[in-house]
Amino acid sequence: EVQLVESGGGLVQPGGSLRLSCATSGFTFSTSAMSWARQAPGKGLEWVSSIYNHISNTYYADFVKGRFTISTDNAKSTLYLQMNELKPEDTAVYYCAQGGPREIGGTGYKSWGQGTQVTVSS
């Protein structure tokens, strides 16, 4: 079965950086669309970023453009999210997902990881 395992979250000061990882198995990673989404306390799930390897396209929500970078290591079947210039409002549980949101032309999400907590605070 498809498995997605996030790691790399933690506590960081405003302006700091973190790199999240999502180790995957159970599907053909190199041609799959992959996404990151987050859920902040008291809020619903927010789409953050997606990558479509087969057409070399990346997509970002407006609130992370210029700060976050999505990438893959196909040899390791691993998805990454490099997060720079972190803000307190970035505090959330971050999830990786197989697929992409319909708002950018995707077909939706197929599977989700368990999430990793990111806390941005002084």
Structure explained in plain terms:
With 122 residues, this protein is mainly beta. It has no helices and 11 strands. The strands form 2 sheets. Strands 2, 4, 5, 6, 9, 10 and 11 form a 7-stranded mixed sheet that branches. Strands 1-3-8-7 form a 4-stranded antiparallel sheet, with no helix packed on it.
Can you describe this structure in just a few lines?
With 122 residues, this protein is an all-beta fold. It is 0% helix and 54% strand.
Features:
four-stranded antiparallel beta sheet; seven-stranded mixed beta sheet; 122 residues; 11 strands; single chain; mainly beta
Query: Which band does the percent of strand residues land in?
Result: over 45%
Average pLDDT, rounded to a whole number, is 96
The whole-angstrom Rg is 13 Å
Strand count: 11
What fraction, in percent, of the residue positions are helical?
under 10%
Largest sheet: 7 strands, mixed
What's the helix-strand series? Answer: EEEEEEEEEEE
State the helix count. Answer: 0
Rough outline: globular
Low-confidence stretches: none
Distance between the termini: 40 Å
**Strand-pairing-aware structural class:** mainly beta
Topology:
Layout: E1 3-7, E2 10-12, E3 18-25, E4 33-39, E5 45-52, E6 57-60, E7 68-73, E8 78-83, E9 92-100, E10 108-112, E11 116-120
Parallel strand pairs: 2-11
Antiparallel strand pairs: 1-3, 3-8, 4-5, 4-9, 5-6, 7-8, 9-10, 9-11
